[in-house]
Amino acid sequence: MTKWILPAALAAFGIVAFVAAGMDLTRASVRSTSDPSIERGRYLVLIGGCNDCHTPDYVARDGEVPEARWLVGDALGRTGPWGTTYPTNLRRYFSEMDEDTWVDHARTLKTRPPMPWFNLRVFTESDLRALYRYVRSLPADDTRVPDYVPPGQQPRTPHVIMTPRLPDQRK
Ligand code: HEC
Predict the structure, then answer these.
(1) Best CA proximity match to 71, nearest among 21, 10, 143, 15
(2) Which DSSP helix (H) or strand (E) runs through 78?
(3) Which residue(s) pair with 85 in the sheet?
(4) Are 95 and 136 contacting, i.e. CB atoms less than 8 angstroms apart?
(5) I want to staple 86 with a disulfide (CB 3.0 to 4.6 A). Which of 20, 26, 58, 145 is the partner?
(6) How far is the CA of 120 from the centre of ligand 1 (A)?
(7) Average pLDDT for the chain
(8) pLDDT, tens digit, for every residue of 59-101?
(9) pLDDT tens digit string along 5-40?
(10) How far is CA 70 from CA 42, 96, 125, 171, in A?
(11) How much is the pLDDT for 24?
């Protein structure tokens, strides 16, 4: 009788572990390493608001966008006095740059609006590395966002006009 206890306990443990692994499948499938900085990078992406622009529909869907779609860039233009910009596909961007290059680049990086490039200057070196490692842990995505459109030219994609308006302005 007692000789069955150990195998039964092991089997039960196996089932629990299997179910637990399955529940975490969506996250495990986008991460292949246990480097703790990756989890830190994911946290920085969330609190840094990077998904708000770099993930399509993230704000419109109250953040309910599967991680598999995070940071792939957005073809919805952001239009203002600077022209029309498109949030970069960060998976593609980081795949074309090594980690040390990114750390150097982030120190001097300055983009057109509405990218809050000045917030990146606050990141410590280890934060920049964690961010990089997290994005590189996501599956590759080579989608290109449309090219920047200079001021005065009409974008050929849907775009959000970000110019402030006075209350009595009709158009
Ligand atoms: C309010 C919208 C917005 C938010 C929030 C935002 N970005 Fe951006 N980001 C953009 C846009 C738009 C561009 C393209 C700018 C351009 O074309 O000049 C961009 C470009 C970039 C680039 C490319 C810079 C280059 O060298 O061309 C990087 C890297 C980047 N963002 C990282 C981030 C990270 C990391 C976060 C979160 C900490 C973040 N962004 C948050 C809108 C945003």
Answers:
(1) 143
(2) strand 77-80
(3) 78
(4) yes
(5) 145
(6) 9
(7) 87
(8) 999 999 999 999 999 999 999 999 999 999 999 999 999 999 9
(9) 544 544 554 444 433 443 444 444 455 567 899 999
(10) 10, 18, 23, 34
(11) 41
Give pLDDT, residue 10. Answer: 47
Task: Evaluate: CB of 109 within 6 angstroms of ligand 1.
Answer: yes
Token readout for 168 is 């009595």
Give the Cβ contact number of residue 149 at 10 Å.
19
State how far Cα 105 lies from the chain centre: 18
The DSSP H or E segment spanning 23 is helix 5-23
Residue 116 Cβ < 6 Å to ligand 1: yes
Task: Give the 3-state secondary structure percentages of the chain, helix then strand then coil, rounded to 5.
Answer: 45, 5, 45
Q: Which atom of ligand 1 is nearest to the CA of 148?
A: 17
**82 Cβ closer than 6 Å to some ligand 1 atom:** no
Is there an atom of ligand 1 within 6 Å of 43 CB?
A: no
Question: In this predicted model, what pLDDT tens digit does every residue of 107-123 receive, in sequence order?
Answer: 999 999 999 999 999 99
**Could you identify the residue written with the tokens 């196996």?**
14
